[in-house]
Design brief:
By secondary structure, the chain is mainly α. The chain has one domain (about 5-160): dinb family like domain (Four Helix Bundle (Hemerythrin (Met), subunit A), Up-down Bundle). It has helices at about 5-25, 35-55, 70-75, 80-90, 105-110, 120-145, 155-160.
Amino acid sequence: MDGREFRSLLTHMEWADAHTWRAVRAVPAAQTDERLRWLLHHLHLVQSVYLQAWRGDPFVVTELASYPDLPAIEAWARPFYPKAVAFAESLDEARLGTVIDYPWANLIVEQFGSVVPSTLSESAWQVLSHTTYHRGQVATRIRELGGQPPLVDFLVWVWGGRPAPEW
């Protein structure tokens, strides 16, 4: 992945996340659904901790209990996007190939026995695919609660002229 692709994929991720949040807000039953609350917190927590690792920020994990409802989770999550875009815009191509030190690596070693170093570019793919995976679970839950999940495919965004996110 190069810097241009990274910035484009981050913009798509925000666009898709914004569509997803609008669909969640449109479903009355979603507002008190604990599964959605957990999924959305987890999705955005992973985005947050990877950005911390990329930027070398202090490692801060905010627990689900810190957010009493979906609007609180959304308000906490939204500042990630301009920070991530600013970070991506500040990168030179060489930085994408640098190995990232993950503050949570010891937890992975405990679970799997080892951790092979990974680059910023590889971890960016992790964040993007992880977000897509859980966004799909959110879409399923929206449908189960009687709502209509949005179509947020990457090519739908491209074919639509790469529109800016609309929260």
